[in-house]
Amino acid sequence: MTHVITQPCRGPRCAACLAVCPVDCIGPTPAEPAWSRAAMLYIDPELCIDCGLCVSECPAKAIFPEYRLPSRWRMFMLINAMFFCLTKNRR
Ligand code: SF4
Ligand code: SF4
Q1: Which residues are within 8 A (CB) of 83 and not within 5 positions of it... i.e. 6 or more apart?
Q2: Which residues fall within 8 angstroms of residue 42, CB to CB, at 6 or more apart?
Q3: Is the pLDDT reported for residue 91 higher than 90?
Q4: pLDDT at 88
Q5: Most CB contacts within 10 A, which of 56, 70, 81, 85?
Q6: What is the DSSP string of 12-27?
Q7: Helix then strand then coil, % of the chain, to nearest 5
Q8: Which of the listed CATH numbers 3.30.360.10, 3.40.47.10, 3.10.50.40, 3.30.70.20 matches domain 3-87?
């Protein structure tokens, strides 16, 4: 299980969630080159410990646990995972 960032993050990309994640599995961060290219933030499903701390921090209500993901945003499970597949060692 993991948490997933969805469509409403596009635009605000406020980074509030970054500050509360205890395992630093949200990215990219403003310190990474990928920050300027990223349309939104993503959660690494291999590292997320499902603590849920990021959910209430998000002003856009963009973060969901996988099991509560609205069906229209199920594709974001793949989108979040793909970001880390494509950028590992390049961020
Ligand atoms: S659920 Fe917890 S571990 Fe997973 S992204 Fe949110 S804050 Fe990080
Ligand atoms: S707190 Fe929400 S809107 Fe802000 S960067 Fe994180 S997911 Fe995106």
Answers
A1: 27, 38, 42
A2: 5, 26, 27, 28, 79, 80, 83, 84
A3: no
A4: 74
A5: 81
A6: T---GGGGT-TT--EE
A7: 40, 10, 50
A8: 3.30.70.20
Give residue-wise pLDDT tens across range 18-63.
Answer: 999 999 999 999 999 999 989 999 999 999 999 999 999 999 999 9
Residue 58 gets which letter from DSSP?
-
Question: Ligand 2, closest atom to CA 40?
Answer: 8
Q: What is the DSSP letter of 39?
A: S
Atom 5 (ligand 1) nearest CA? 48
What is the Cα–Cα distance from 18 to 36, expressed in whole angstroms? 16
Amino acid at 83: F
